[in-house]
Write a structure and sequence with these properties.
Belongs to the endophilin family. It is a peripheral membrane protein. The protein has 362 residues and is an alpha+beta fold. The protein has seven helices and seven strands; from the N terminus they run E-E-H-H-H-H-H-H-H-E-E-E-E-E.
């Protein structure tokens, strides 16, 4: 009795515990991984470059219709245009209007840099990935399906050949003197035809297996191409961020030279950290407030208040007072002291404490 034969990319084995050749299995696995991850990277890059799904659908339709996508201003360009129009209404000679002109012009340049970045990224990175998914991978999938059909045809031919051989052997084992010669002749002819069909099917399968194997081995060259495109994408992205950084630095310099520029005290979100981050730009530094002799400071006749400590605070030097959360202390201010600091007293201990760590009680 014959053992069933298994085929894989042109090779066969009569071992009942059949396993595909290692190299061919790796090629198929690598090709599937390449397709899956390329598709995910492509989709997510599309979302990053164009978060608006409606705009992505519009671009897709224009591409399918083989028409050029109409130019669309970026959000930065629209914002810049609004600022420039507002400056005309408020008057370019006013402090607010002149600043709107500078910021609006910067926003327009940022928007232009973004549009150039999107176009370059699409050409250098998205297009090669899409070409692989819509071109090379479709060809690989088509050839793999064709190979599977050839394998099924070959299995069918082998089944017919096996059936014909079995019938021929059975007829030879039980001779019939009246019909032996005609029947054996017919069975022998049927076996010969089945064997010829099997050889043709095997040849077609081997030829298709070789084509598929070459396509799968070409995945390595696809990785090389995608690596080059990825490096180009990184270069374009770095150039874009560098350009935006230069624009913002230039804007900061222009606002710093402007007589109408305002000094803004920015407070970080969340619980306070270093109290020095809360100092306004025109306030004396901590080094200047350190010049106050804490031991010489006397509480005013009126104006002392109780305060609850919100967070633990470790004194930075001998002029400060360490705090523990939820304790009550007495606080007051003295002339010439930074508004972000108070003098705190706890028993016979005295020192500077940051206002942001306190809840003043009435």
């Amino acid at each position: 009795m014959e053992v069933p034969v298994r085929f894989y990319l042109g090779r066969h084995t009569t071992n009942s515990h059949w396993e595909p050749p290692k190299n061919e299995f790796i090629s198929r696995f690598l090709s599937d991984c390449t397709k899956n991850w390329t598709e995910k990277i492509y989709r997510q890059t599309e979302v990053m470059l164009q978060p608006n799904p409606g705009a992505r659908i519009e671009e897709f339709l224009y591409e399918k219709l083989d028409r050029k996508v109409p130019p669309r201003p970026t959000n930065g360009e629209i914002l810049g245009q609004f600022m420039l129009e507002a400056a005309k209404e408020f008057g370019p000679g006013t402090p607010y209007g002149s600043t709107l002109i500078k910021v609006g012009d910067c926003q327009r340049r940022l928007g232009g840099a973004e549009r150039e970045f999107l176009q370059t990224s699409s050409i250098s990175f998205l297009t090669p990935l899409r070409n692989f998914l819509e071109g090379d991978w479709r060809t690989i999938s088509k050839e793999r399906r064709l190979l599977e059909n050839r394998r099924l045809d070959l299995d069918a031919c082998k089944a017919r050949l096996k059936k014909a051989k079995t019938a021929e052997a059975k007829a030879a084992a039980v001779p019939d003197f009246q019909e032996t010669r005609p029947r054996n002749y017919v069975l022998s002819a049927s076996a010969s035809a089945a064997e010829h069909e099997m050889r043709v099917a095997q040849t077609e399968f081997d030829r298709q297996a070789e084509v598929t194997r070459l396509l799968l081995e070409g995945i390595s060259s696809t990785h090389v191409n995608h690596l080059r495109c990825l490096c180009e994408f990184v270069e374009v992205q770095a150039m874009y961020y560098s350009q935006c950084h230069n624009y913002m630095q230039e804007l900061q310099r222009e606002l710093g030279r402007s007589p109408h520029s305002l000094e803004v005290n920015s407070h970080p979100a969340g619980s306070p950290t270093d109290p020095s981050t809360f100092l306004p730009l025109n306030s004396p530094s901590l080094l200047e407030t350190d010049a106050l002799q804490i031991e010489e400071v006397q509480p005013p006749a009126s104006g002392t208040r109780k305060a609850k400590v919100l967070y633990d605070y470790d004194a930075g030097d001998s002029s400060e007072l360490s705090l523990r959360a939820d304790e009550l202390i007495t606080v007051y201010t003295v002339p010439g002291m930074d508004s972000d600091w108070l003098i705190g007293e706890r028993g016979n201990q005295k020192g500077k404490v940051p206002v942001t760590y306190l809840e003043l009680l009435s």
